[in-house]
Write a structure and sequence with these properties.
Layout: E1 4-7, E2 10-12, E3 15-17, E4 20-31, E5 34-41, H1 42-45, E6 47-53, E7 60-63, H2 74-99, E8 105-109, H3 116-133, E9 140-144, H4 149-158, E10 165-169, H5 178-188, E11 195-197, H6 203-208, E12 213-215, E13 219-224, H7 234-246, E14 248-251, H8 257-270, H9 281-293, H10 303-315, H11 320-327
Parallel strand pairs: 8-13, 8-14, 9-10, 10-13
Antiparallel strand pairs: 1-4, 1-7, 2-3, 4-5, 5-6, 11-12
Helix pairs in contact: 2-3, 2-8, 4-5, 5-7, 8-9, 9-10, 10-11
Length: 333
């Protein structure tokens, strides 16, 4: 069975943890900086393995698995869903402003699986379709996954023209590479001219006819799962502070498991989440209730997980719950 622990008094990265329940990974240990306990912090901190600082083993206790999620005030939930929807509306409007050239750059931070990329990708597709219909060169692209420094330099050059936009999605490795960070800072510079340079010799650039420096006039959107203020390295944080000062920073503030559940409910209400499944309202409610009741045990709480469970319900209407518990929930320890 999965063990759970209630931390009476502790902290994680200078944030107080008091009277909160987490799935237990490893009991009390002593490290170079004192005692700690290892727990699954997905719901509270967005990470599945964290060390919460505690003074002694008496600062926590083993507890029964939470059978149900504590009740919340429906009025409070409605207010919170409105706030979440407003943040995503702002994201869409800001994306349009970057595409129009009114805003130079934007960073979007939030946990995985909540739809950060969806609205941005939709706006890019509409802009690119208009360019294609008009017979013009497509002026925007979304780059996903790992990007090397040289690859980033090439991408910035390709979309360096005025009103061009490049979106880096799920490219968090860029934030851990000093050369990439310097290129990004150059692209986001607040001066009239944004000069990007590649000072190292490169056969690849010469073969592709790319100069070793150019003026970047385009826009940049950077989508990340990381919180800038939670980075461990002071050197990296200094770079991120410099980046943040150069552009708009939108934190979607989906910091708790409950917020993620409310985001799923919000998207379900629009009809978009389960549009491909021909579910009635009862079917949709059953899926969301299952996720709500089992949120501490699910491998992740996200729009993707809701779709996975919906696929099981569509394919196995009589035993989808058992299959979801087997394939979508963490193994017991």
């Amino acid at each position: 069975m999965q063990a759970f622990v209630k931390i009476k008094s502790g902290s994680y990265r200078n944030q107080e943890v008091r009277d909160e329940v987490f799935p237990l990974i490893k009991q009390f240990q002593l490290g170079s900086k004192g005692g700690y306990i290892t727990v699954d912090g997905t719901g509270r901190f967005g990470k599945d393995k964290i060390r919460v600082t505690v003074a002694t083993p008496t600062d926590y206790e083993l507890v029964e698995a939470p059978a149900t999620v504590p009740a919340t005030d429906p009025a409070d939930d409605e207010q919170r869903m409105s706030e979440i929807a407003e943040r995503f509306d702002i994201l869409n409007e800001m994306t349009k402003a970057v595409l129009n050239g009114d805003i130079r750059a934007m960073i979007v931070a939030g946990p995985p699986g909540v739809g950060k990329s969806f609205g941005i990708e939709g706006e890019l597709e509409r802009a690119n379709l208009f360019d294609q219909i008009s017979g013009r060169r497509v002026k925007s692209e979304m780059i996903k996954g790992t990007a090397s420094a040289l690859g980033m330099y090439k991408a910035l050059y390709k979309y360096s023209d005025e009103n061009s936009v490049i979106v880096f999605d799920d490219c968090d490795s860029i934030l851990l590479d000093e050369i990439c960070l310097n290129l990004l800072k150059g692209a986001l510079d607040s001066g009239k001219k944004r000069r990007i340079s590649w000072l190292a010799d490169s056969h690849s650039l010469r073969n592709e006819g790319i100069p070793d420096q150019f003026d970047f006039k385009g826009g940049v959107i950077f989508i990340t799962n990381l919180k800038f203020d939670q980075m461990k390295s002071q050197k990296t944080r200094d770079h991120l502070d410099a980046i943040q000062s150069r552009c708009h920073y939108l934190d979607l503030t989906l910091d708790t498991m409950h917020d993620k559940i409310l985001r799923i409910k919000q998207i379900a209400r629009t009809g978009e989440l389960f549009a491909d499944f021909d579910f009635d309202q009862l079917d949709q409610d059953l899926i969301i209730d299952f996720m709500t009741d089992n949120q501490a045990r699910l491998r992740e709480v996200s729009l993707r997980m809701a779709i996975k469970i919906a696929q099981l319900k569509k394919s196995f209407p009589l035993k989808w719950v058992a299959l979801a518990k087997t394939t979508c929930m963490k193994s017991s320890v």
